[in-house]
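Hello Y.,

Per our agreement to keep a running log of every chain we model this quarter, I'm adding this entry. I've kept the format consistent with earlier entries: sequence first, then predicted structure.
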Amino acid sequence: MTAWQQIAIDGETHVRKITDQYEEFGFQVRLEEVKPAEVEQCIECLQERNEKIYQICVPRKQEVGKYR
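Predicted structure for the entry above:
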């Protein structure tokens, strides 16, 4: 089973750019939609734009080599 680590939380506008960059470097990327109440950082601007909020995850460091 793959252990994942969060690398970012962002709105749908920027998620594709972040995901594309990590995939270009050979990382497997997983997106999980999160509810605003589940996020500890400020997301006021994302809520004002009614964006879906995603947690972006990659395999933990010891497992990264498996996907390169």
